[in-house]
């Protein structure tokens, strides 16, 4: 049954979703659902008042890929002008279109695909347009809860601070993915925390640069675990990348037969 459904998806739905009109319809529905979940939930915001300080000056918002679902309404509500880093993969382009409906414009690329071009374009936008940058630091394919270098380069080259952002919720649904993508159920509580700004010395290089990267990663992981603990959610550990996760999932299914 699984193989049949997978074949049906690849043979029908995947080609359909390549159509621009269909993609916009799908992301429109997703945007409505996102707002509906957000507006029908109770909110527990921590330090979100500081977002007002970033309306007129650049900042690098960093978050883990699996915790981005409810961050778009928060950024939109704060009226912050920002770009987001999006993968060139079809899923990434669909997500970029969804973010566009929340006012976030896309710069396409990742740490593994066009990283230098993304960095140059992002730095130029931040300096010329005085806008912020939203970076899913373990995207587009993991490993989960691992901070990649891109955000630090944005901060080092622009002087903008890095600000960790995370959300959690009382009634989550976890997607069966490498990033344990979290989607809140209706009528629960959504918690969102804005971390303190972290500045990167423009002279930082080598071992000191890696030390700073690891320090920020530790702060972000601690932020996520503390927020999940408030709702007694299971602890999420640093995981596999997308390829390894799919491999382990196939092996597990084969052993279960």
List the helices and strands and how they pair.
Elements: H1 2-17, H2 20-39, E1 42-46, E2 60-63, H3 71-77, E3 82-86, H4 90-100, E4 104-108, H5 115-129, E5 132-136, H6 150-158, E6 162-169, E7 172-174, E8 182-184, E9 189-194, H7 206-230, H8 242-256
Parallel strand pairs: 1-9, 2-5, 2-6, 3-4, 3-5
Antiparallel strand pairs: 6-9, 7-8
Helix pairs in contact: 2-4, 5-6
Structure explained in plain terms:
The strands form 2 sheets. The protein has a 7-stranded mixed sheet, sandwiched between helices. Strands 7-8 form a two-stranded antiparallel ribbon. The chain has one domain: 3-Layer(aba) Sandwich (Glycerol-3-phosphate (1)-acyltransferase). The relative contact order is 0.15. By secondary structure, it is α/β, with parallel strands linked by helices. The mean pLDDT is about 85. The protein has helices at about 1-15, 20-40, 70-75, 90-100, 115-130, 150-160, 205-230, 240-255, and strands spanning about 40-45, 60-65, 80-85, 105-110, 130-135, 160-170, 170-175, 180-185, 190-195. Helix 2 (about 20-40) crosses helix 4 (about 90-100) and helix 5 packs parallel to helix 6.
């Amino acid at each position: 049954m699984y193989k049949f459904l997978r074949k049906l998806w690849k043979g029908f739905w995947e080609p359909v979703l390549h159509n621009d009109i269909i993609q916009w319809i799908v992301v429109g529905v997703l945007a409505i659902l996102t707002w509906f979940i957000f507006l029908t939930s109770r909110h527990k915001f921590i330090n979100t008042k500081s977002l007002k300080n970033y309306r007129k000056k650049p900042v690098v918002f960093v978050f883990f890929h699996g915790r981005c679902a409810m961050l778009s309404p928060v950024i939109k509500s704060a009226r912050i002008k920002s770009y987001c880093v999006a993968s060139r993969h079809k899923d990434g382009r669909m997500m970029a279109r969804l973010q566009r409906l929340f006012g976030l414009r896309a710069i396409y690329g990742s740490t593994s695909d066009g990283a230098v071009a993304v960095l140059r374009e992002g730095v130029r936008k931040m300096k010329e347009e005085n806008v912020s940058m939203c970076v899913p630091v373990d995207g587009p394919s993991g490993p989960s809860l691992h901070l990649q270098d891109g955000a630090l380069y944005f901060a080092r080259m622009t002087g903008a601070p890095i600000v960790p952002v995370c959300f959690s919720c009382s009634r989550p649904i976890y997607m069966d993915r490498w990033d344990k993508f979290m989607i809140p159920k209706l009528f629960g509580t959504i918690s969102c925390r804005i971390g303190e700004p972290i500045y990167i010395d423009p002279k930082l290089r080598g071992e000191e640069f890696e030390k700073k990267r690891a320090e920020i990663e530790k702060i972000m992981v601690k932020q996520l675990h503390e927020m999940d603990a408030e709702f007694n959610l299971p602890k999420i550990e640093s995981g596999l990348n997308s390829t390894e996760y799919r491999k382990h999932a196939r092996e597990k299914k084969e052993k279960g037969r």
